[in-house]
Amino acid sequence: MWEGCVEEFDNVIDTNIKGTANVIRNFIPHMISNNKKGIIVNMSSIYGRTAAPLISAYGSSKWGIEGLSKSLAKEVPKRITVVALDPGIINTEMLATHIGSHSASHYQTPQQWATKAASMILNLSSADNGASLTVEDPGILVR
Question: Is 58 a catalytic residue?
Fold first, then answer.
């Protein structure tokens, strides 16, 4: 981290934490004023629950999403559920950068994940409020 670019660190934090907070800040008032029930799913990562070298900015931002989600879950009306969702291991450019393209190809694509995750996300309830959830291949929701 100390050898990295300050602007790159700031960009990751601004995107992952501040971006999420700004969307929430503008969305929740409409849910509250319209007496809406709903679920807010904030995208986290395994690195929001563990640590790894060379990804300090990314890891810090995802720890921030975990904390933001848990705190927000205690602030919103009971009809609104907030969760942090770790998608599990997905074949992305970021993964390929860390483990190589061949190894990354053994994991599900974002499209495959989305198909599996959609039904799980749609089945979340108020009992999940404040939870840190993980969708693992092949589509198992871990609470």
Answer: yes
**CB-CB contact of 75 with 116 (8 Å):** no
Stated pTM of the model: 0.84
CA distances from 30 to 80, 107, 122, 125, 132 (A): 12, 38, 21, 20, 25
CA dist., res. 112 & res. 94, Å (int): 17
- Going along the chain from its start, the domains and CATH numbers come out as 6-142 (3.40.50.720)
Q: Which of 58, 61, 65, 80 is catalytic?
A: 58
Between 64 and 98, residue with greater pLDDT: 64
CB-based burial label for 34 (10 Å; 0-12, 13-18, 19+): exposed
Residue 85, SS3? strand
